[in-house]
Amino acid sequence: MPGTEERIYDEFETNLIPPSWRDRIWEKEDFRKFYESTVKDRQAMENWWEKWADELFWFKKWDKVLDDSNPPFYRWFVGGETNLAYLDTDWQIAQGRKNKLALIWEGEPWDETSGQPKEVKKFTYYDLYRESNAFAYCLREKLKVQKGDILTFYLPMIPELPLYMLAVQRLGAKHSIVYSGFSAEAIAQRAQDAGSRIIITADGVYRRGRILSLKPIVDEAIKICAQNGHEIEKVVVVKRTGQETSWNEAKDIWHHDLLKDVPKNVRIEAQRLGSEDFSYILYTSGTTAAPKGAQHSVGGYAVGLYATTKCIFDLRDDDIYWCTADIGWVTGHSYIVYGPLMVGATSVMYEGAPDFPGPDRWWSIIERYGVTVFYTAPTAIRMLMKFPEENVKKYDLSTIRIAHSVGEPINPEAFRWYYKHVGREDIVASSTWWMTETGHMLTGHFPGLGKIFPLKPGTNGYPFPGITMKVLDDDGNPCPPGVRGYWAITSPYPGMLMTLYKNPQRYIDTYWSRFKDKMYFYTGDFAVKDPDGYIWVLGRADDVLKVAGHRIGTAEVESAMIKHPAVAEAACIGRTDPVKGEIPFVFTVLKQGYSPSAELGKELKGHLRSTIGPLVASDAVIAFVDLVPKTRSGKIMRRLLRAVIHGAALGDVTTLEDGVAIEEATKAYDVVKVALEKTEG
Ligand code: WT7
Hints:
Blueprint: H1 8-12, H2 28-39, H3 42-55, E1 64-67, E2 75-78, E3 81-82, H4 84-97, E4 101-106, E5 110-111, E6 116-117, E7 120-124, H5 125-142, E8 150-154, H6 160-171, E9 174-177, H7 184-194, E10 198-202, E11 204-207, E12 210-213, H8 215-227, E13 234-238, E14 252-254, H9 255-258, E15 273-274, E16 278-284, E17 292-297, H10 299-313, E18 320-323, H11 330-342, E19 346-350, H12 361-369, E20 373-376, H13 378-384, H14 390-393, E21 402-405, H15 412-422, E22 443-444, E23 462-463, E24 469-472, E25 485-489, E26 499-500, H16 504-511, E27 521-529, E28 535-540, E29 544-547, E30 550-553, H17 554-561, E31 567-577, E32 581-590, H18 598-611, H19 614-617, E33 621-624, H20 638-645, H21 662-680
Parallel strand pairs: 4-19, 8-9, 8-10, 9-16, 10-13, 13-14, 18-19, 18-20, 20-21, 32-33
Antiparallel strand pairs: 1-2, 3-15, 4-7, 5-6, 11-12, 16-17, 17-26, 22-23, 24-25, 25-27, 27-28, 29-30, 31-32
The structure holds 5'-O-[(S)-butoxy(hydroxy)phosphoryl]adenosine (WT7).
5'-O-[(S)-butoxy(hydroxy)phosphoryl]adenosine binds at residues 284, 330-331, 406-409, 431-436, 460, 523-525, 537, 540, 546, 551.
């Protein structure tokens, strides 16, 4: 609930100052003054961003920093022209980084005999440039890809993924990347919405020592598209695992065949793209079953990304930077590919599972490449900290100087473990808050500004300079320190999404209509500010789950469930999980003629796997109940269900759903509880 006192920070508020930063401490007040100077008025804010834009390459400079004549459709660096591929390769080469390592890729397969990974590939900026030019040539000449086309990628963490991204940007085409843990239906839905006629995929992927297939999932997606009247014309398949693969001569083409007979050293000039053209769309979950296509710009996105990469990761020429995310999520788009390359860094990319062949794989990667700046997710830290400390202690991680996290709140225990074991209690570490929609990090600690302010375990730090964010009550008024409210962004900033693809009305309704009369961006999160001004994001305020840091709409799960013939009704709630943060817990009412059984439970999980994807299915718990309690107006009593699964007594649920009689709630509570005990027993 907004408006309630929230003093979580009291428990663990300590001011940590990493020793090597002791003489570079920015007293909180000093930082606040600096921050205020960047947001005090419109001109100050524009100056702050313009300073960063000035550092970047532009084919043509902008005429206007911000056009806010038609909110919420803000346009940044209007009149400017640039290109993400140009910034990431051509411009780097022009700055003397031609032979600098841009990307280090490590495959998952492990050679027990040598104690080394079986495959490592290293790309200089020149390598990336040459290869992405060749890819771009083939897309343009052989597949007739043109400026403005949207290509759907369903690719694992292999080097072809960033290379195709750069190729697409070079041509002024756009990508829509679907995470490789999603299902055929999810791909179909997205490819169709984006109007893609080309899908780029791989035969399969290595995961935790096993080979999983991807191509058959794409085959299935194509069928679904066809049934809906959308034709996928071509499928490019990268041979990764070499497994047997279904083949359709009419549509399928091997990536290595596509790349045959490319003229030597072929160059494709990077398209001059308008700053407010778009660079990609990325679908993300919300409170309805249909995913939303967050549409990102070219110029504004580049500027926001550049500034945050520099300030928060403080990347220098000799850094080795590693972000452990998957490129299928926004974190990977922004902070494995576009951001680090834009600042000329060396970015590490790892294909596989963190615990293969053992729970020390990540630490061995840090040691082997001498990683200096690290970016990961709390869920991974919580998973790895369960293993004996020896796993991390036997590696030399002393190269690390900055290590941030993202995706969900970091609990102080996980922060402390991270700070101590990965950071030897001498690094800058913070929990950087942002979302798919924001394009880049919006809070954290900013060592790249030269100084830092003290760390506090679990906090999200401060808003990034130039950005105004507030904790608000229901009416859009600021909550005092210590009081929980809705987390809102109250000023525009360059990397913000432009709109939802082909759906501007939904863009307005979803994000900009929460606070009456006020043009504020509603994030969907709860947060609280402590008396020092540090932000603590508490979690989602809407019906969206964060499962292992991944965003999943409860409505998506529910709508998938009721597509199964045995299911009459379903209500999906997040259950707290010590490692994953949350897992989907699905209250399921069966249709007449079906009865609960372990087999049916399995079948339903299989059904979730094929409709949403393994990502959701592997963690979901399905519980059979006789009813899903609802209010008179037909809304699922989520708070009550949440109380039941967390074992809270009914009396603990102080505020029940509006308009629900207490007797009704008590009855529902008992029915659900009994059913649950049966499932779990
Ligand atoms: C949601 C956005 C942006 C990268 C990955 C997630 C939660 C994200 C934090 C953090 C607390 C966080 C929020 C947000 N979240 N980072 N540091 N502390 N919560 O992107 O999938 O679009 O999810 O993730 O709930 O709304 P996403």
